[in-house]
Specification:
The chain has 176 residues and is mainly beta. It has no helices and 15 strands. The strands form four sheets. Strands 1, 2, 3 and 4 form a four-stranded antiparallel sheet that branches. Strands 5-6-7-8 form a four-stranded antiparallel sheet, with no helix packed on it. The chain is globular, with a radius of gyration of 16 Å. The chain starts with 7 loop residues before the first strand and ends with a strand.
């Protein structure tokens, strides 16, 4: 997240572990020694990820799907849990700021073998859905691998949603 020539945050997670490594880039210089944190969901899995909140904001957003539990988790700057949205089978997503609002995007794998694409406004600390569509394709996704990616260019939001067995979808949405 950010600009490698300016300020950025780089996050790497370790599969089947709760280890999260964070490198900070300041004025184009990367700190060569990462900070190590522990993801607050104790069940190790292959299917989880962490993204930093947008530059200027503190904290992280985690996405996880384990045999015991699944969901989204908003964390503070040391990976302590702030809030959680449980029951969402996903393994990745993205967070972005647009016009002073903070949005999270993810693809949830539903029980009826469909991918559900969502964008939520999380500015006020709640998960307020503003985009919620089901993928037309369906197929097996035994590992619940699903994710989303966001980008703003020329005042338009570009969103890519992916779900194993259900497809890859691309949207362009005008920002106001």
């Amino acid at each position: 997240m950010g600009d490698l020539d300016g300020d950025a945050t780089i996050v790497a997670t370790k599969a089947q572990s709760v280890d999260v490594y964070v490198w900070k880039v300041t004025n184009g210089v990367v700190n060569p020694t990462p900070q190590k944190y522990a993801f607050p969901v104790a069940t190790p899995s292959y299917y989880w990820s962490v993204v930093p909140m947008p530059i200027g904001m503190s904290g992280y957003m985690g996405f996880f799907s384990t045999s015991a539990t699944n969901g989204l988790i908003w964390m503070n700057s040391t990976m302590g849990e702030v809030s959680r949205s449980s029951g969402v089978r996903t393994s990745g997503g993205d967070v972005i700021t647009i016009n002073g609002r903070v949005y999270v995007a993810y693809t949830a794998y539903s029980g009826d073998q469909k991918g559900v694409m969502r964008i939520c406004d999380i500015t006020d600390g709640k998960y307020n859905q503003i985009f919620n569509y089901t993928m037309e394709a369906s197929g097996a996704n035994g590992n619940s691998t699903a994710s989303a990616c966001l980008m703003v260019k020329n005042n338009e939001l570009y969103a890519v949603f992916g779900c194993t067995g259900s497809g890859l979808y691309f949207y362009r949405i005008a920002c106001r």
